[in-house]
Design a protein that fits this description.
This protein has no helices and 24 strands. The protein has strands spanning about 1-10, 15, 20-30, 30-35, 40, 45, 50-55, 55-60, 65, 70, 75, 80-85, 85-90, 95, 100, 105, 110-115, 115-120, 125, 130-135, 135-145, 160, 165-170, 175. The chain starts with a strand and ends in an 8-residue tail after the last strand.
Length: about 180
Amino acid sequence: MNTYKKEGTIKGELVVDGDLILTGNLIVEKGIDVKGNIDCAGYSIKAGDSIKAGYSIKAGDSIKAGGFIEAGYFIEAGHFIKSGYSIEAGNSIKAGDFIEAGYSIEAGHFIKAGGSIEAGDYGGISAGLYITAKETVSCGLKVFAGIGVWREITDAEKTITCSKLEKGNVAYGLLKETGITPSLL
């Protein structure tokens, strides 16, 4: 696989048969489809449509897509991850601030946010292991934590920890509300 280095604005779609290493912010008018990793050290990735990586998506700042964000392994941003539709990772989803999707959020292992986690009015949140948000968790339908089928999952691994479950119902997992409001953090 080849490595493609890029920054700036692209009119249209970006398809890379290898890794994409960003040397600055990247704005793509339509979608981004990368067979390997997307690595954006201290910068942001923004696509008008969707962002898809065969392996991982990592940004020092933020990841934002008008459509879905999908990675075979993990999605990680120093600040926020925001999608107009869904966010899906084979392993984990982690953001220093908030995670927000217009529809659903799904991770094979864990979901962790330094702020809030929010899925749309007609979507839910599911994780093979735990879900942790320093602030609120909210979705239109159901929240599932600890649904991993590859081994026995402990109570700690199926816990949804947040200041408050703002909207939605816990369909599977253990809810632990800390009661700590963002203004008191």
